[in-house]
């Protein structure tokens, strides 16, 4: 049986453009379905750069104007890998053109933008998803499974951190290619939108709605050279953000993110303490889930490190990869997301995180920034 | 040369009474000095129990009234191991009687009490110390040494947690022997005074003064049987407490404590992120200090786990114990504290934490509880 | 500039057929060169199965007779992923046909076969390589780099283990698809050729020639149903093999492999103790290299865990992948091997392990089996 | 009720003299019994040194001739902490004098000496024990308990190592105070008797009799200055020793010890792989036992790290110490051994390891050295 093509139009060619492209190329071999992903077109303003990217990754054509890409009839899916300040406009146009949309995170610059985007995809009825890829690290998916099975009992605490150290150097500039994450005009915020957004998405998925938050932010380096203006300019992003909060289910939140934690590169960790079981995960050793199971006999109780690589059916996604003991990498989370997106298309049951799901995270992000500014507790708006 | 006796009068015989007594007995063998600790008298209201304790530990006599103990001429040091609500009265009386005082932590029920106690020992001019024993775990002392040598550079973050799980069971009663820590009338507060107090003391020692804090507390189990009244009564302690804060040196604080973190027994951890070095310590593996040293050559950089057991002079206190690789236990921290207390007596330079030092921690504790109650940021009072 | 095609003819479609195919598809995107790998033909006896495999992975054609594949003019490289008892015949024929050859490990069933294979590729002058892929896990490559830089000083000990637990079940059959590794007729040996071969290859690469060995083997389950004959037959493979040895450089070897170590899936570890530095690596956490550097200042010395994911140039292969902190998987080692194979073709300097290199490992394997059988020390033959 | 005195005569005042003395002083407080240990006399050739030791530790008297000590009527127990070459003579004399004997390990210089010693204590009917203290680290005792409960099923592998790095420096002298372990005349052997002896004792206790062994030894530094002769002399001890073996129960042994493993101070580890459960322990983190329990549900299986500090009855010895999460040190193993020795006296059931038990270890040691010398497999003699 011939497979149905799924023709991708990719906007952007940076780190995420590469990660998504690798997933599009891998998915058919590891997660075969009735669809065949076709790398139809890559789009970016710089013609030379996008041509080079397209050649390397096998995109059949290029565009330099995203509006033209969206108009093309031979494109089924638009993948938005631009800086955050472009998400809204592109997504709304793509929805209007009837394209399915895969958008990088965070969904938008703020909640109002996010609401417009959700309205657009819902009105157009197009499939939509946001690249909160960590949900699909097998160890994280296993955590979700254990929670859904009720193994944790009542949950008391949810703790998450995302620690990096790459901006400690004060002579690192802000803005432009590769550095737009330091420029609030392009990124919307600093670690909140870049890093905490991941932690919040996972947390809502695992532990439900956050009701209220109280946050503190700090910008350690106050001014940096701006690569686009050539001038030293004020830094407007948050270099670090810590917040406390309360979940609808009565549990307590403690979240922290920074780019000034010397020694940590991408230390995204979460820990959940339930009455009957606790869970811990760490992106630096992403193939492991640690659990403490109180139901185990007293003298044998301890923190157990599960090497989530079993291909016998016990561990999510792993039967499609290698044999037990052999770890897959960070990149596989994107392959899983594409596989699930296709599975959603085929089954008619959309797989999350949808734009609507991502709007919930956006509501928390806005509440955090509002709280930090006002030095007060803030209720999280409903999505 | 005959040694000078240091005659101890111990008030209380619980967990801390035992830990201190073990230290008094060990100190002469491992840290010889010109003083000889003499277990002169043990004091508690229950005559049978205190007799049993005194026999087991070798105290020469017993008392059932702490006022009588303080009046005795043959006592040089009063060790206060009672519930917190007795600290002030005993300490002030002991100071008035000219006794040296070793007081369990937290210093007092609140800042006003603490101020009275500081005034009393300063007026009397008696040696005084508070049992914040974790300063003297060799790995923690090594952390202090590295900070004092300026190895961390500018400090950005200080993170501490103290997690336990022993009160999850809702049918655990409150109050009375062994359970007074669940009764606010005896303990003053819950995890704040019991656990966070340790974290705050270490943090002030390592990172300096906390300027302002914003806290959240929770009491998960609202009512418990009270062993003294026999009735189900409201629980007034904090079961969990999280706070954010800002240090005088510009770094950010993230602290958390709870007795509802399933799988953790006494997981006191701290992490400090400096520009040039980061440090991490964990009470569950108390003989290790983890460091990340940015000054190491690029390709060799990693988190290094120092087994703090070297007896060649590199590791604090360890030359007095065994040989490299052989860990000492939790109990040794008390032995070190007694050794340093005596060293302070002999050198004339008091060793901390003094009552005054402990008052600083009390000021943070009061600010936290005030903040949690008012849901607002609170400035920490000066000690 | 048009790239030069490198047309692959793959023989076999099992676990390794998939792993290699993934590498062929990935290499052009992550390690661009002047060559383009083309999946030209897949070959296996079962026409339906090979067709299914070819469709899934994008091979342009199929064959059911490996001799026909070798005769095809449109094939540049033969990849041998068959059971071990087919390696020799195929490799010699492929060499005679002037094909480059990538052969799965171990090279052969025994040393005499290996010698014939080496002679064949050397006579034909064809590029040749053996899939000892662990050399190209970035953490292992970093270990090689540190040794080559002379950082370890005199080496005293080399210790390696490869522990699994998948054959403990006594009702697991032997022989046939997926189970040929339990059948000595197809595999040559048990854990020696399957697992220790990897350990030995890495060890020779890192620490040089092994002079003499003394081994012990055991077959815990003596009989198993044979899937090809349908009868219970004697098990002739080694289930476990331990050996001691002496290296040419004066260091001591301790190697062990088993499929009866409950709890270990693919725990390949090695540790090297040198006068100035020790190294440790573990396949279960393959992205980490642990080092102890004696040249570090005394009080800071510890075992350091390097997260080998730096993309700034410090860590081998990693600048071609993601950003620091994001781990790549087991599969990437094959991608690296293809990249290096191509680099060898382009530079004219063959990249190891060549057939000749792999023959050295074969000499150790034969010596081990000989030693275990004779219960004596055996000198390792020169390759 | 008055306690029965147990008057100790200690011979030696080095590292072990201190460790035992600490245990004698602690045992009454932590493990009360009907006996009271009395530090009656310390004995060593150097009158000044032994006086200093006696004063520091509270021994009531001193002797400079061990024969006089043994003749004293006011001594109940002789504790032998001399170099190994004195064990036999002292033990036989002490037995003849009717003293109970606690002897440091290894029991003797060789099997014939050991047999004489066993005969002497058995003829005299005196209580006897050897200080293989690691049996009584709570995590190790827990391992024994799990094995005795049959939790491991059939055992396939026993692996042990004891790695140090303190003799790498070639200018370290041999012989004399603190360095007699490098002198074969005083120690009998090197790492075999010093370190492997511990591993073998634990292994026989946990896994039963070793039938046959095949060993390799090495002396890396061939000559060292001898502190007693002042001359450079040949080094006769084994710096490193590796051996393979077979147990009576069909499992395989892999043991290794060295003083040339840079980065390891006292890394005594053992791992046992059984059909249903595997166990791992490590002296550097002595308060933890790691287990893999195959009976746990598939997706939850992992290596679990048990923090062996529970005081509720689950963990051996721990109800006598502190509260969960608070680790005890290396020194506590001696306290436990004294407690059990007394319990053996009171119950009439001698607690091991007795001299007879230690002779079994001696038989393995002799077989190892014999095997290494002859480069052959050697059967282990029956004790």
TrEMBL record, chains A, B, C, D:
Residues 6-130 form the Gfo/Idh/MocA-like oxidoreductase N-terminal domain. The keyword Oxidoreductase applies. InterPro entries: Gfo/Idh/MocA-like_OxRdtase_N (IPR000683), Gfo/Idh/MocA_oxidrdct_glycsds (IPR050463), GFO_IDH_MocA-like_dom (IPR055170), NAD(P)-bd_dom_sf (IPR036291). Pfam families: GFO_IDH_MocA, GFO_IDH_MocA_C3. PANTHER family: BCDNA.GH03377. This is Gfo/Idh/MocA family oxidoreductase. Keywords: Oxidoreductase. Residues 142-279 form the GFO/IDH/MocA-like oxidoreductase domain.
